Amino acid sequence: MALFGKKTQSAPVQAPKGPEKVAPENSYLGREPIIDRDQAIIGYELFFRPGTTLKAKRINERNEVLAQIAKRLAADPKAEVTYPDEITEANLRDDEDNEVKEVTLGEMLYALKTKGVAQSLGLHLGFIKIHPHQLGDELRGIPAMKFPLQIDLAEILEAIKTEVPPDETVKDSKKDAKNPDDPDAPKVPEILEKLEKMSNIGYKFVLTGLTEVFDGLEDILPKFRYVKLDIQHVENAASLIELCKATPLPRDTKSPAKKGAKAGSDGAVMQMIATHVETPEDFHKARDLGFDAYEGFYFIKPDPDLSLHRGDDYRKILKLLTLLLSSPELHELVDEIELNPVVAKHLMVIAEVDAGRKRAKPENVRDAAVISGVKRITRWTQLLLYADSKAKVSLESTPLLQLVCVRAFFMELASVKLPAGAGLGSSDLAFLVGGLSLIDNLFDESSREILSKFNLPGVVVDAIADRSGVLGKLLTLAEAAEIGDLEKCQQLCAGELGSLTLDDVAQDSLLAIKTFVAQTQLAPDEDVWEQAEATEEE
């Protein structure tokens, strides 16, 4: 017997763990492009769905109740218990039993920073809708240089009205005048002071809901750098544009002046954005009125002034695409690419982006093919049907190209989450459907007529032409996600695409966008979050 035996040590007593906490879902929902007069994307209005934080809270509360029920039943299997309802978007209510309609700043920040919405923008701006009561310190967490903040005029006027009640006498309203040099000057509304303060540290504000001139507008306009006008509901748009552009604005001292910039291009001139531009006719009307930019999906519809420079180049690309779908040898592929200037030009750009990371700059088309890989060339040839070899717009800022690329990547990602045997075929087919879904915009033929000329699976043609089958439903979901149609997304996720959730839609949309950004442009030099933190410290 050993003098000193090993002392057995009992395991530490651990308190029973409660149910694992559920993190909030991604509140990102979709985005709408904002395009300048040169038909280049300058930014997107970002859409978010409300209630994601509250939903996580309610689910966690329900899980706690379920854990307590489980303990009770373990102690007494015959105990009577009442199970709480599942938490869904339909039955989600706040503490006052009201439907949740407003996205919180915390939810937006979570999506922007943690979920990658900011990175998905690449070099473009993200326009975000906020409310007057959100103009506080928490707002400083949003990078000023990247995100113009959008406020509705009706909410501003309501905030001013609430601050200074109509029955208050003029004498009383002048008591607390902010101008010590002129004690009779009326008090500056608090919301305008907040806008001024935030503007002074670099934030850009966007005014929406303006329809006519009214008394007091001259005090509000100088706080804004952008004004959005709904061309469908504004009668005298030309006079409003003239008034806004004539409004004197302070020089932007936070943004560095760009070399060769024209006078006023530092942001000191108010920029006018037309909204609800959904058809080429809307675009022509807005352009003739003098708008600087246009928000909407008008560019997906054929129009002589907006169309790509079509012709033999595009027929050659279709021929090349047919070759690619037959798995050609590399030398065959290179020979055919060299006959296609549109493909050759943009594949060199894409390869150069890769080369910036791999330090192997391509010297010719063959180098570009080796760097990018045959499968990637096949995909980009399909997508480059939507590029314009003669346009002066960069690849990542071409609206139609970016839309169809992101759609194809989204459909590929989402298709992987669908169950086997759902009639999908493969994720490659999902990508193909997304990539060819706007092909009828390029030629004066229907999509079925064009696609029937190529050896494509029937499910691909039917999905594009008729939105039929699982691929057709997935394409419809992609279209709904692009415009932030929450109701349509919910409907589709509850139907044949039931294995997908709204969180899946948000995550896959963002990953699709980031994939496009990563493959077409290098990361910006500035870290917008570091700059936001520096602004907070100031």
TrEMBL record:
Residue ranges, compositional bias (Basic and acidic residues): 168-187
Segments forming domain HDOD: 307-502
Positions of the UniProt region annotated as Disordered: 1-29, 164-187
Record-given protein name: HDOD domain-containing protein
